[in-house]
Design goal:
- The protein is 48% helix and 13% strand.
- By secondary structure, the protein is of the alpha/beta class.
- It is globular.
- InterPro entries: NAD(P)-bd_dom_sf, Sc_DH/Rdtase_CS, SDR_fam.
- It comes from Solirubrobacter deserti.
- This is SDR family NAD(P)-dependent oxidoreductase.
């Protein structure tokens, strides 16, 4: 069972909860963060995934939980390209940078990589294009890595649906209202985000899946979490594209 793990994005949300839970379960936890931590029991490691991460090569690790991420949303028609670059740099390129730095250690220990993705890595909603693009890309990188590292390092994806975290509220708080004809869609998605914070799955569900991916004798390639995520994955697989588009439009419409 992996004993020493690096958790990125450990200052809040899923990363914070995972670092605390793993430490309590006997793991030695390195908590990658850009800010000071407000909890004990872990070893903080200064980490900005968009900058040089070569210092991670000094760590002896059994596992990496790639959780650091941001969410950029908005209509692609008006999206500043620098915002798309920022989204991909953090959620995709930065994840691979961490993996590359940690792979020598993980190969020595025949360790594990757990990439925290999203149902948005399977199904894209309107205005979530930048975020979904980063998660689709992370899924592709994870699939390729799983095949390339087969027999030496396990690679798993965590794919939660709506989670009760404030990430979308923080994102929406700094997101400008888009021009027409996207105002109504933005309002509906804002309502969905507010509802998710109240009714989304507890963070503990995601943390539990991370723990299973780290400790199972045969970890899964994917852990799809939440009824909403399982339903969307199934429908995307069986419905024609036009039917899936109509369903998503209906879901967005009902969020008012």
């Amino acid at each position: 069972m992996p004993k020493t793990v690096l958790v990125t994005g450990a200052s809040s949300g899923i990363g914070r909860a995972a670092a605390i839970a793993l430490a309590r379960r006997g793991f030695t936890v390195y908590a990658g963060t850009r800010a000071a931590l407000d909890y004990d029991g872990v070893t903080p490691v200064e980490l900005d995934v968009t900058r040089d991460v070569s210092h991670l090569r000094e760590l002896e690790l059994d596992a990496v939980v790639n959780n650091a991420g941001i969410a950029v949303i908005g209509p692609l028609e008006y999206l500043p390209l620098d915002e798309l670059r920022r989204q991909l740099e953090v959620n995709t390129v930065g994840q691979l940078a961490v993996i590359q730095a940690c792979l020598p250690a993980l190969r020595r220990t025949r360790g594990r990589i757990v990439n925290v993705s999203s149902i948005s890595g399977r199904v894209a909603l309107p205005l979530y294009g930048p975020y979904a693009a980063s998660k689709f890309a992370l899924e592709a990188l994870s699939d390729a890595l799983r095949q390339e590292l087969r027999g030496s390092v396990h690679v798993s994806l965590i794919e939660p649906g709506a989670v009760a975290t404030p990430i979308w509220q923080r994102t929406l708080a700094v997101t400008e209202t888009p021009p027409e004809p996207y105002v109504r869609i933005a309002e509906r998605l804002r309502a969905m985000a507010e509802d998710a914070e109240r009714t989304g799955m507890p963070i503990d569900v995601v943390v539990g899946a991370i723990h299973r991916a780290l400790t199972a004798a045969r970890p899964r390639a994917r852990y799809v979490l939440g009824r909403d995520a399982r339903v969307m994955v199934t429908l995307a697989r069986v419905l024609p594209v036009q039917a899936m588009d109509r369903l998503i439009a209906r879901i967005v419409e009902q969020s008012r």
